[in-house]
Amino acid sequence: MQNKFFPYIALAIGISALSLSAMFVRWAEAPGPVTGFYRLLISTILLTPLFLRQQKQLAPIEKKYLLFPIIAGFFTAFDFAFWNSSLKYTTAANATLLGNTAPLWVALIALFIFRERLRGVFWFGLVIALTGALLVMGSDFLHHPTLGIGDLMASAAAIFYAAYQLTTQRGRKYIDPFRYIWLVGVSATIGMFIINIVMGNSFTGYPAQTWLIFFTTAIISQMIGYLAITYALGHLPASIVSPTLIGQPILTTLLAIPMLGEIPNATQWIGGAIALAGIYIVNQSYNPPQPETPNA
Question: Could you count the other beta carbons within 10 Å of the beta carbon of residue 291?
């Protein structure tokens, strides 16, 4: 029992840390991609000493395998850019829920590109999940078309996160987890820098409170959230960790009520519950090796 106690505590801490991501983006008086850039930059800098220590202790990484974390990093950059931007146009609950539909896209990409066979129960779960997501998004489009745009951004983020997972699934065969995730952080930071340059976003001129949020989201959302989930994945089966991560949108929805004053309407509650049930079924029917960095 003692051996399982700390992994479960770590899992709870990781989910809680990730659930706060949407709050930090909404509180920061900066464009979403800028918040994402500093979240990645600060956390990568803070983790650099540990990376250098592992570089000395472990065998060198073959150059041909560096392509995996580089590509995964750019997928992460687009994931962050779309997801953080979506929070300016939709609710924290919607962005987190739709951003966590990545398992659906992972399985579909695996089916159509890698020709993996999927069980019938997967298709059942997919239909349920998409029905719930359409209820959530449809409610926004009918009442507030601008919110609907935010929902589409969050869904696009989920597709890029799915691409990250599939790239990582293959790259992790050749690179240890910590060095892999540091390299992803470097690549994603460069990607976010380019995205912000193209969008014309400023990297300076923000109030002190926003800079504090930049550091807070880097430490809590990126470092604590990632390390806690990674620790849990090392001690608990993916069949437990993956479905449990579905609790993140639920916790974000509950936290958004007092912290952001966002109260979902009846259709969104029902759609969210249906989507979560579908994602759970998909997770149970198709469980690829887990990525080292959780979404959001």
Answer: 28
In-domain check, residue 244: yes
Cα angle 42, 69, 189; round to 5 = 25
Number of domains making up the chain = 1
Long-range CB pairs of 237-242, under 8 A, 24+ apart, other chains included: 238/287, 238/289, 238/290, 239/284, 239/287, 241/11, 241/290, 242/103, 242/283, 242/287, 242/290
Question: How far from 25 is each of 134, 148, 240, CA to CA, in Å?
Answer: 24, 19, 29
Measure the CA–CA gap between 65 and 184, rounded to whole angstroms. 12
Q: How far apart are CA 216 and CA 53, in angstroms?
A: 25
Residue 250 lies in a domain: yes
Range of the domain at 226: 2-285
The answer to the question of residue 293 being in a domain is no
Question: ∠231-235-240 over CA atoms, to 5°?
Answer: 100
DSSP code string of 210-241: HHHHHHHHIIIIIIIHHHHHHHHHHHS-HHHH
Cβ count near 108 (within 10 Å): 17
Q: Which residue has the higher pLDDT, 225 or 215?
A: 215
pTM recorded for the entire structure: 0.85
* Domain annotation covers residue 296: no
Question: CB-based contacts of 115: which residues, under 8 Å, 6+ apart?
Answer: none
- Summarised one tens digit per residue, pLDDT across range 231-267 is 786 677 665 666 677 778 888 888 888 998 888 878 8
The residue type found at 162 is A
